[in-house]
Amino acid sequence: MARAGADRLGESGQTLIMFVIAMAFVFVSLIALVGDADTMMVHYSRASALALIGVQAGASAVDLDELYNHGRRVLNQGEATDRCNTAAAPTPEFQATCNVDVVTGTVTATVQESVSLPVPVFGLQAPISVTRQGRAVFGGAAPG
After folding, report:
1. Is 90 exceeded by the pLDDT of residue 51?
2. How many Cβ atoms are within 10 Å of 117's Cβ, its own excluded?
């Protein structure tokens, strides 16, 4: 009987040590997840702002020849696409795709970026893609 009590005294701190080690892994994983999520949110916000700027730049490319000579309010497709691509991807880390629909005056910009994660739990890179759409605004009454 005395032998069983002696065995228990030698094992009294092992559960606590295992619990501390397990919690350390949980907390380190949680910190890594929060760090990666924060980085992704910052880059997503930047890509979203660039897509919006690209749409606005593209939607401002009014075809002045059509407006002044024919009274039609349409976008210049080539200029709108160029403006959108230039504004939406100011640096090589961003890839922009802009589509212009001259009939409806709609500009769609998609900005993509590959983000390097600070704590690579799920991989070293994570892709981000943001799409924004807008229309050209023409003041005054519509031509009748």
Report:
1. yes
2. 18
